[in-house]
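Dissemination and training. As part of the outreach component of the grant, students in the summer workshop were shown how a complex can be specified as a set of sequence lines and then modelled as a single object. The example used during the hands-on session is reproduced here so that future cohorts can follow it. Participants entered these lines:
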Amino acid sequence: MAMHIYDLGWMLAQVLLLLCSAPLVAGIIKKVKALLQNRIGSSIFQEYFDLYKWWQKPTILTPYTSLVFIIAPLVYFASVVVAAAMLPNFFGTQFSFGDVFVFIGVLTLGRFFMTLSSLDTATAFGGMGGSREIYISVLAEPVILLAVLVNALRSGSTTLAGMALDFQAVYLSVASVLTCIAFFCLLLAENGRIPVDNPDTHLELTMIHECMLLEYSGRLLAVIHWASMLKTLVFLVLFSLLYLPLSLPLAVKVLLAATAVSVMETLKNKMRLFKVRVYLAAAGILLLLAIVAQ
Amino acid sequence: MELIYITLAVYGMGAATALFPKKMEMAAHYCAVLAAVFGSGALLYQSAAYLMQGSGSLLSGSWAFFTFNADRWSAVFLLITGLAGTVTSIYAWGYAKSYLGKRLRLLGGLWNAFLLSMVLVLLAADVFSFLLAWELMAVVSFLLVNHEAEKKAAHNAAYQYLVMTHIGTAAIMIAFLMIGSQAGSLDFAVLGQGVLSDNVRNAAFITAFAGFALKAGLLPLHVWLPNAHPAAPSHVSALMSGVMLKIALYGFGRFVFQFLGPTEFWWGAFVLVVGLLSAVLGALYAQMEKDIKRILAYSSVENMGIIFGAFGCGMVLMTTPRHDYALIGFLAAVVHSLNHSVMKSLLFMSAGAVMHATDSKDIEKMGGLGKLMPWTAVFTLVGSMGLSALPLTGGFVGEWLALQSFVTLAGSSEGQGLRLLGALAFVLFGLASALAVGCFVRLYGVVFLGRNRSRLVERAHESDWSMRLGMGLAAILVLLLGIVPGPVVAVLQTAVQNQQTLWRSFADMQKVWWFGSGSYAVYAPLLLLTVLSVVLLAVALMTCGDKSFVHREVTWNCGTYPTARQQYSATGFSKPLRRAFDFLLKPKRTATYLKKGNPYFGRQLEYKLSIPDQFTEKLYVPIQHYMVWSASFLRRIQQGSVRLYISYVMVAMLLVLIWGAM
Amino acid sequence: MNFLVIVLLFVVFLQTRIMDLRQAIICLSVQSAVIALACFISGIAHGEGIHIYAPGLLTIIVKVLLVPYAMLRLVSKLADERELISEINVNYSTAASAVFLVLSYLIVDKMLPGVEGRDILALSIVMILTGLTLIVMRSRAIMQMVGLITMENGIYLLGMAMTEGLPLVIEMGIFLDVLIAVMVLVILTNRLRLSFMTTDTNVLRKLKG
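and obtained this result:
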């Protein structure tokens, strides 16, 4: 039991570390993007200031909403935090309460509530965002599972710790490169990044994730944004741990992946909503090839 | 073990309440419900106690020509029947009252008869008893579907169901006869011991699977299900979806484990693919429907697909080098059967409550019911979460096990074939489960959240105590089965393990439910719950601690005042998916101008969208046409004269005699 | 026994020629009585105990008394109806019976050469086929019933000749069957008379969809 409490402590440390660094990583992505676009851009700490600002502001609720509207951001936040806690421990201890399917399930829990809240606002915008979110998730889910399958077959385990790449050995093969590319595509889709969604715009015709948050303000908005940033970081870490076949320290790999996201966002445009089908199908086919090639 | 007989007797007495005089309609109703609750409760207790510590068989014996025998495989489904039966019967106390004056006595009697017939199917120990009980179940459920025979839709659905279910019975009967004729006996215990040739086994497998798949609503034999389940009164739909579909799995399991001999690889692969395709298409159609009960019915197709998919995965595993892992597929099927029966009963009950409150089945007319029916809303949320297979609900456990079985399948040999089969299973399963999430977000969001979409909702009221009690118990069960699945899975495992002693048990596979330290797969729901609730509590305290921070303002709507009709509709919500899957769904859209006028304004446009079930359109309608067409040839020899017909007989007889003498 | 066969053959030929309903029923009754007699003779020849008398007695009760009585009552309600067919048609049915007689002897010789009850077997086939001919060629419901019972007698005779007495349960079943069939037909005929003012079954053609 004492051993478990010790492990629990390390898990807590990991979660806190991820929580605190999530806005920083988001800031870095923005900064790199700005530099790539020949702009100076905002400070890499800007996201912390934003969160602080929203925290100070009052929350405005519409008269039509029910309790779900208030609960949803909290559940979303909690689910992402739990997902962060489920990542293989950086500090080398063994502690987990669910394998990769539970990880996916926990993230789905957050999405379920966020899409529900989008229908609770009783406007066209919320529903539009929720509807598109569901659409993307339906297309992404099979691809995620395939990505999981590749690693599960390689390692013979479905726990995230078991699936993690061996840091010491450079693990390069056709299968691992294909999986790496496919999962990167998936990472962009899951976190509402260009080319699937544009996190910087509030044009209702193009946005997905931002659409659902349109009615949120104050602390609830801060919670959602923080959770979204954490989710991006969790996916970056996951990508680095499981799919990036380079033998580098984790922090470096995460920063590398973050930079890759910035580069991608600079190079590509947001694609039409119904093109996402083709985009994710392509990622799925890469993964199928990887499964065959393994 | 005598308690089962009491259950049967109580159900029988409940069925007899249909004979009460007309004046005592209410008394008949109460007696019927009490009988059903008491009988199901006894059944639940009995089967649970047996599964936990019993050995041998639950009961065996015979009465008249009917022979009983209930082993662990039966007991699992008896447990499901007892559980769903108890919950829905409590609900029926309040719900069925709305049928006062509409053959309420008959409804109560048939309700008990339906439960009785399902229990008899599970107890039957020879072919004759099984088919008799199976027929009884079919006929009673037909009568229940046809209960509101005044409604044209219910009437048509009932007859469609009757025809389809008899086709299924015929297929099952053929399968039984093929095996029985080889075994030389119709007793279940002897049936599997005959030496069968491969052709007979394959043929028996195909017919048995067709028969049971029809009852389970798998593709492409599902067409009756979305019509029949919604047509019945809601508590009956709950039982039909929750229990009757599972009985198909029971029968199919008997065939696979006992009667058909060693499983072939292609059987399993066939069941797996058919099951998972049903799951995807069921979920897709569920996403498109507007009728609350049709959504749930299609969701049943989806879940039965997942159950059969996992079962097929187990069958494939039996033929691979890792056949000792086959247990996990069957276990997933059984666990998901139990969970789905509770969740689907819950949601059909809440659909009933909603229909009771609003007099409508059309979710496009609802909205904002959460404020008027808070209890129902909470229970439905739990059920929706379960059916979306979110962690900490029962639905997740079964799907998690199913995923584990697919991983095992993909990794079970070095060959590419199984790996690709596993990958296919993953893709289809992923689609189905994500579609299910979308479907229930849409259902819950449109019905319970937002604003009233029509005046029907204004009159809505909370359900009475018995309905709330029924739904509440089911909701608690959904959570309980999700948070402490360990003991339940361990108990259910004994039922499957009984079939083959070689199979590894769950503990061997290093699945640990509490503190996760397994290296293969881990799910520790209690710990997950603890962590999740701690985080949730912390963030809730931080965010909502200060009440003064909350303001109420009207939703921003680009500067105009929002109306209820500007909300996203259910049809709109599923639009992206409709478009993404239009190659499967083939939606029909027509736009007609009601009033011609200025091309830029003042036009009235009527826009119609219909998504006909493609299997009805492409498969059943052509078959029907062909049958009518070929019947027109038969008309020629049918002239309506009795004497002509007799002369056909005579000619035939003469020919036979002469042929015999040749 | 041979004498009985000749009598029965004669009765059957007569049956094809009678056009008056009342006479046809009496003829039928006589035919059944001969069958009953054959039954007793065969019973006494082959076995003992109550079992051998039971089928004969049942034949007398059901086919000689009950059924003709019911039919006669029905006929009395039909004000002097006759089978309205031409003389040629009658000749055809008699001729058909004659052809059947030849045919059935051929069949019996071919299928069961040298069998003991050759005449009875042939006769029973003739009776079955003649009964069918009656049903096909006559249009009055009563005459069709007569055909049915002739056929039934033929089957019964065949069974008796082949197996030397069927189990009692099956015989009871057959009698019950005949009784029910006649009951249904009587009711049907009555309905026909009330609805269409005739018992001509040709009117049933109107029911065809």
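The two ends of chain A are 40 Å apart (CA to CA). Students were then asked to discuss how this feature might be tested experimentally.
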